Every structure is written in structure tokens, then in C-alpha cells.
Amino acid sequence: MKLNQKLVKACSCLGINLLEISRFVQISDVPDIACWGFDKEKKENFIFINPKTLRFSLESIQIVLKHEILHYAGYREIGGAKDRELANIALDISINKILTITYKKKMKALCGRIYPETSRKTIVSLARPDLCLNEINEKLKDLWKEIWEREEIPSPDSLYYKLLFHKEGISIGGNPFTASENAGIVLRDMPANGEDKFEKIEKEALEKVISDSQEGKLFSKQISRMFSRILVGKEGVDTKNIESFIQRLRTKQQLDDTASRMINALDGSSKIQVYPYQLSRLGLVYLACGVSKVLPLYWNKVPESRKPKLAIYIDTSPSMENYQKMEVFLVDELKDYFPTKIFAFAGDVTEINTKDFASGNYEEGYSTDFDVAIAHLLDSEFDAGIIFTDGYSSIGYENEAKFRADRKRLFTVYFTENGRPSSDLDELSEEVMVISK
To answer: In Å, how far from its chain's centre is CA 340?
Structure first.
């Protein structure tokens, strides 16, 4: 491959030196602008960039390369997506949002140049920060506003399920970051087990985007959450060679431990007061040792009638359907100890009972929205809430501020195939627990 000087300069800013360029980037007519894919002959993944893209300014070429590197990195993180084309668009939207926050004017100008006119009324319009609301398909306007008029970076997983809901009757054409299938190239095909050369430049590109941004810690935190395996570290245990019986025992132990932790935290079997009244065991010990006399404080039993009212919020988005039995186990454990009501949430909140949930008799949402669960808890009579989720959502600043000002208690239980999920719930929760399947 004959090296283009603009490409050399653009790559050098991303930690790719002159000798490495051909390992990562190939100049090709296959994509409209750029894409990544697996070269069957060379048996490697590459970023393929169209020669006409190299006529762009140096900064625009760098943004295109960053887009493709982040897109490749994001493919590791997105889970459960069977429709590759929709997953591709969901990632394009999230990545364009990240790049627009960091390079606002340049991204708007670049998008206006590379996206075809036909994309204005298709699902691809959701990836365009250069458009105005009145240019968007009527069915997509609310989602476009959610993406581009809010400060948060949308989760690709959440977007994927929203796109599944919205795609009926709407074209998905006009995406410049793709290509028609080529006999020698398989688009968006992650490498099999083994060394992945792109790991070297993914972190470099992400850190470059963060350092170029003026948004500070919040922006950095959102990106770290979206690309946790790259920026935070790879986690999880390979259990494919462990017998399923041992795995079930481990999961049962996790469930028991999680239920015990929440019960102990919520039970409040003793309360610190300035007078002695029905001392708890701990209160009797402190009294006998003279602690209560010195302070003076007393650890009294909490009457049964004052046990906290508990709301359990179960994420019923499609990505959670594999964890139903584990959720039922925890619900059954908790409702025996506390006055409890159960709510299903995705796009909104609906009260359900354990029997209906266990039998699948509830309405499944198309995406997760933590805001509806937090708002419901704040406006309710409940003292505490427990959220069962896989973590693919975020909380708006207004609800976060209201919750911090309130005295309600929150616990989060993540369900995952592997790794340790994280979300905006972490900083609001008294305890965060993880159940791995």
C-alpha cells in the first residue's frame, strides 16, 4: 500500500507509527467513507478507508479514524444484538455523540459533508448532529431529541432495542460508515479467540478523545462506563470448561449472599437512640461494656411495624429475559422480610405480582430507562428501592439531584454474563451487588 502523507500524520496522532499503518489501515474503494472488516485473504481485521476520504482535512481524517476505532471497540461491549446493521447504527449514534461533544463544529461540518441527502428521513438521521428537528422523520423526532438535546451519551445497547422498536416502516439506508458486502471482506466481524491487534490503539484513541474534550470528569466517567473493558480492565472468569452443576451451585451461593446482604442492610434490627427501650443484642452488649453510659446512646430494637416499605424494580427490557429465575428467587426472599411491592420497568413503571412475573405475564419494554424507576421511587410511599438490571441505561441530572436530596435508600443488583457492570446507579446506591450467570 502506497502511504498517503495525510494518513501518516492522522495515524501518528493515534499512536500508530509509520511502520504500523499497514497493520491497521487499508486504502480501499469498498466503503463509502470508512468501515472496518475482516480481510479473508490476510485473515486480519482492518479499517478500510476510501481514497476520496483522504482529500478531507487532516482533522477530518483523524475524526473518521477515531470513529472507526471506537466503533470497533464498541463492538466488544454491545451484547445480545442479533441484527448487525441496527447494532452498527446504534454504535454510530453513540460514537457520533461522543465525537460531537469533543469536536462539535468539526463533527457537524463533517457529517453535513459525508451523510447523503437520503439519510435525512431514515433511521441513520439519528446519528446526525448537523440536522434540525424539523428535518427528522416524524416517528423518530422524540428519539432524535433524546439523543441530541440531552447531555448524556446514549448507551448503544439501549439504543439498539429502541431502534428495533422504531425500525418498522422506516428505511435504514444512507450510512457512510458501511459498505456493500465484498467477496474478500466480511464487514464487522470480530476476531476469534487470540491476540487482537486493535487493543493497542483503542485505549489510545479513547484517551485522546477524553483529553481533547473540555467536559471534565462527567464526560470521562460516561466514556469509561461505555468502554469499561478497555479503560477499566478486562474482568470475568471463563467458565466454559466448568461443569454446569458447579456453576449452578456458585450462582445459588451468589443469590443467597445477595439476599442476606440486602436483608441485613434493610432490616434495621437496631436503632441508635438517646434513651434505652427494648435493647437489641448489640444494645445489651454496649450497655454491659459501659459504652452506652459514656456516649450516652442506646441501641434499641426496631418495632416490626416500622420495617421499611420496599419497592423492587425489575428491568424487563429484552436483554434481561435470561435472568428471570434468579430475580424471582431474590424477590421471594425479600418479600418474606419486608412490606414489598414489585414493579416492572423499561420505558415506564407497572406494578406486577411475583406469580405473574415468574410466569412471564407482564409487558416487556423495548429499552431500559432508569429515570422512570428513580422518579417513581421518589414520588412513592416506599422507604427503599431495589433495582434489578444489567446496567444498560443512565439517570438524568435532575433525577440524580432530587434523589441525593431525598432520604430514600437505593440498592442495585446487576445481572451479567461476565464482568462487572456499572451505571449511574452506582453512586446513588447504598450497596451494589453482582450476580453472574
So the answer is: 28
In a shared domain, residues 281 and 321: no
Region of 297 please: left (phi>0), alpha (psi -120 to 50) or beta: beta
DSSP states of 234-302 as a string?
------TTS-HHHHHHHHHHHHHHHHHHHHHHHH--EEEESS-SSB-HHHHHHHHTTHHHHS--EEEEP
In angstroms, the CA 138 to CA 99 distance is 26
pTM for this entry: 0.56
Across 352-368, average pLDDT? 72
Domain presence at residue 322 = yes
176 and 253 in a single domain? The answer is: no
- CA neighbours closer than 13 Å in the CB half-sphere of residue 260: 6
pLDDT score of 128: 95
Task: Answer whether residue 238 is part of any domain.
Answer: no
* One domain for residues 146 and 162: yes
The answer to whether the Cα torsion of 222, 225, 229, 233 is positive or negative is positive
CATH assignment at residue 378: 3.40.50.410
- Counting the structural domains of the chain, the total is 3
Distance, C-alpha 297 to centroid of its chain: 44
Model pLDDT for residues 265-317, shown as the tens digit of each residue:
665 556 677 777 777 766 777 777 877 777 778 777 665 545 678 899 999 88
> Does one domain contain both 220 and 264?
no
Residues 275 and 302 in one domain: yes
Q: Do both 212 and 63 map to the same domain? A: yes
Residue 165, pLDDT above cutoff 80? no
Cα 19 to chain centroid, rounded:
36
Give domain status of residue 236, yes or no: no
**Residue 238: per-residue pLDDT:** 34
Contact 435, 326 (CB under 8 A): yes
Residue 242 banded pLDDT, cuts 50, 70, 90: very low
- Separation between Cα atoms, residue 415 and residue 147, nearest integer Å: 26
- Rounded distance between C-alpha atoms, residue 127 and residue 148, angstroms: 9
Q: Check residue 158 and give its pLDDT.
A: 78
Q: Residue 33 above 90 pLDDT?
A: yes
Task: Tell me the residue range of the domain where 393 lies.
Answer: 244-268+307-436
CB 185 within 8 Å of CB 30: yes
Q: Are residues 345 and 296 in the same domain?
A: no
For residue 240, what pLDDT band results from cuts at 50, 70 and 90? very low
